Amino acid sequence: MLSNVDGGPKLSHYGELRLHEGVKVAKHEEVLKNMFSDANPDGIVNMGVAENTLMCDFLSDYFEKHFKLRDLDFTYGDSLASSRMLRDALARFFNERFQPWKGVSVEHLMAGAGLLPVIAQLGRALVDPGNGILLTSPYYHGFDFALTSQHNIKLVGVPIPLDDLCTLRELDHFATYLQESEARGTKIQAVLLCNPQNPYGRCYPLEVLAEYCRFCEKHDLHLISDEIYALSTFSSQDVPNPEPFRSIISLDLDSIGVKESRIHMIYGMSKDFDANGFRAGVLFTRNEQLFQSLLATSIFMLVSSPTAGLWSALLNDQDALVAYVERNREALRGAYEHITGWLRFHGISYLPSAAGHFLMVDLRSKILTQIEAYGSMVGITEDQSMVERERTLQVYLATQCKVVLGPGSAFHMFEGGWFRFTFSISRLAMDIALRRIERGLGWERCPELN
Description:
This protein is an alpha/beta fold. It is built from 14 helices and twelve strands. Helix 3 packs parallel to helix 9 (about 305-315) and helix 4 packs across helix 5 (about 140-150).
């Protein structure tokens, strides 16, 4: 345990518990200090974080031309649920793009400074400390920080066999884990659904969404639908006709016998709008008690006035919005085709993706089971478990090749040897990263790399 060098006062119990997590975050800080850029061409290329930089030129140009502040923007604003201008723009956006079964209005929306703060506040309002939320595994590790670290909410990952993914059979696994969790003393109060799924990059069919709603109605659970990658869908050679995105708010809940007060949808600016640093997320709910409860602490997550103004401007500009969404999808498709071409050239297995900024790559047969070929180079051994080999390879690539990948175990993948590759980065950065991996592992150079 870390201690103050001067023997000063101790932290609270909460503070002590967060120390080990802070150490992990500090390692990420070291990566951020040495990131690849035009000014730092020898820096680390981060392909482990879901950031989309493919549309920076478009957005930078648009936002520079449409940035305007009002006198109101220098105050706390016109609502503690965040800017009415932003929520009005979001209501129109959802009504046009998410095909809700009932119209979305400002009164159904509460915005916050990033989706994780929204999730943290929402989780605390729905689930008691020590109780649990069911969600498919693997899952986005940010949920651990927002829910478990902040509020001691247990995340119960449900491993879904790949053949059952995004099918009605998922709910059979959820029923089993619900029963087992409560038998072990963990009361489940909610289900968290990611649609499109992170890290698999797939959308859920409407009938599966409806079954999730029925499951939560049957067991008296809240359902949170995280739809932050809703517009980041694309077709490819791998998936020429992907399942289209359909929002949970498009379901006619009355027709399937589900109370609308248990269904909550969350969305954000970070992914579909390539703006992780702007920090803006939003909750949609028709649960009036929940909305009033969240108002008590919503001031802690108000969206900044500049961010609210910029996002509103783009949401309200239909011509620019349509052009942006289509160009972003085309950019994602091109980046996906490029990286999967590289994976196929090297005979590496992966799961086809059709949404989001990433895909899951299986490095077991290519590297992690080839101890004779890569043992001394990478540091993997026969005595290591597959997860240990995965972590060893991650460290080797980060330190020796200056390429960061997302290890599957960080996303609670149910078997070792998988990595999440982010492809929504510039072609230059991607090619440099892939070429570094080739050199670091002694592979032939793919001719498609620049």
